[in-house]
Amino acid sequence: EPNTSSTESDNRQLGKIGTTYTRPGSAGSIVPLKSRYENFIGGDWVKPISGEYAEDLAPATGLPIAEYTHSGHADVDLAVWSAQRAFSTWSVTTTAERAAVLNAIADRLEQHLEDIAVMESWENGKPVRETLAADIPLAIDHFRYFAAAIRTQEGTIKKLSNNLVSYHFYEPIGVVAQIIPWNFPILMAAWKLAPALAAGNTVVLKPASATPISILYVMELIQDLLPPGTINVVNGSGSLLGQHLVEHEGVGKVAFTGSTETGRQIMQYAIKNIIPSTMELGGKSPNLFFNDVAREHDDYYRKAIEGFTMFALNKGEICSCPSRALLQEDLMTNGFLDNAVSRVKRIKVGNPLDTETEMGPQNSADQLQKISGYLALGPQEGCRVLAGGARAELGGDLAGGYFVEPTVFQGSNGMRVFQEEIFGPVVTVAPFADYDDAIQIANDTIYGLGSGVWSRDTDITFKASQDIRAGRVWVNTYHQYPAGAGFGGYKQSGYGRETDQQTLRNYQEVKNVLDNH
Ligand code: TAP
């Protein structure tokens, strides 16, 4: 039986994370947090066997939020065992029963939307205006979408001859290992948990060490809705426990979102027991602007300028960040680039819990250091710095935060800053001469995740949406992630699709029955 223990008592001092966030119509908001978060295993809060913990830091201040478990192999074993036990009952529930649980989770999250949004904002650093409007509502909708998807999934039946009929059962795989990154802690969890549970699997989830608590905060809110062991959350260092989890004999599938480098390692682990994997990896997404966007200075023009600034959304810590802006030559000199750069300079950088803030701090000191390296590299490679280019120094309580200025570099596609994923608020701009030139530069990357095309000419956008080698092409928009539209990568951005019907198949075995009457 799991070695369970009750949770630590509330620590309102540490929990006062919401004091600068003012709820509309109220004096202020406090999200109560505990001082320490255990693993969530078998429906209970379980201390790590080693008794070791680490500190979760707030990126806006560099100060601790709470402690999380530094788990080891034995904790992973316990979580897999709990998930295996839960599988025997969860996997034989009806699709209607599973859909009811997912809908109940969605309803519960909706009741607590504001608190979850504040928590996620403080732990990740992303502005609360984004978590309130996008991250958490999209996560909620995901549970609803997969509740519907599992009930409407169609199979195939073929009559092969007068007495031979072929049909399929879609069966859950078993225990699924899910390893997620820190840039969308709740949304990435929802993208993975909802389809896995809908299909009848049970889960061991490993959050990123930079954001270990948001998902546990959510688990506290929904734990009474779930049969024990259906979702198990184990925190700790991925490099210490990731291999053990993926190679565990009790695990039947791994789903990963994170860097291409780590994805490559996890694929090696998955080989051991020949388990299927899905990989959502890195990107260096092109955002193409054709001359006709500047034909008039109208709403469309302004929308395109906003499209250019999308590289700074979530402080650029998005796998599909439009980090290469490719502008047709006229746009470099006719005011479009100047207007876009002025808009970038007006992006309000500050406290993520301030609803006026457009860009918060980078997620961690490591991330800040990595981005700073690229800020230095750009000019060394010969880039012109059109905006930003340095760390943003904010005073007062935020003096210790990991803030960076939104940065625009002008250069050429061969440079390292054009080819390597920076994962920060940095866009590199280069000109193109004509359509063929645009597509050639857009596809000149090892990645193929997102892309954007901006033109008033539907012949251009329609053709480009076919010629760009990426899993998602946004036409005259960017950074929309509705459930129902499949998302995933080409090339070294990974394989497998999430957020639509196809995702269910990632979590299902397909059994063929040949029935000879
Ligand atoms: P990673 O360093 O790859 O970490 C992702 C997750 O993998 C974390 O939970 C991490 O745990 C774990 N991990 C690290 N080493 C591991 C190992 N050897 N075995 C098993 N798990 C291991 O990436 P990140 O820095 O968190 O996220 C940034 C990257 O994710 C970017 O490249 C970005 O493009 C990509 N990303 C892609 C997408 C999609 S949809 N394609 C979405 C978001 C992010 P620890 O935190 O404990 O190290």
From TrEMBL:
Limits of the Aldehyde dehydrogenase domain: 45-513
Keyword hit for NADP: no
Highest rank taxon of the organism: Bacteria
InterPro entries xref list: Ald_DH/histidinol_DH, Ald_DH_C, Ald_DH_CS_CYS, Ald_DH_CS_GLU, Ald_DH_N, Aldehyde_DH_dom
GO molecular function (one): oxidoreductase activity, acting on the aldehyde or oxo group of donors, NAD or NADP as acceptor
Gene3D superfamilies: Aldehyde Dehydrogenase, Chain A, domain 1, Aldehyde Dehydrogenase, Chain A, domain 2
Record keywords: Oxidoreductase
A UniProt-annotated Pfam family: Aldedh
Positions of region (Disordered): 1-19
Active-site positions on this chain: E280
The keyword Nucleus belongs to this UniProt entry's keyword annotation: no
Family the entry assigns: Belongs to the aldehyde dehydrogenase family.
Protein name, as recorded: Aldehyde dehydrogenase family protein
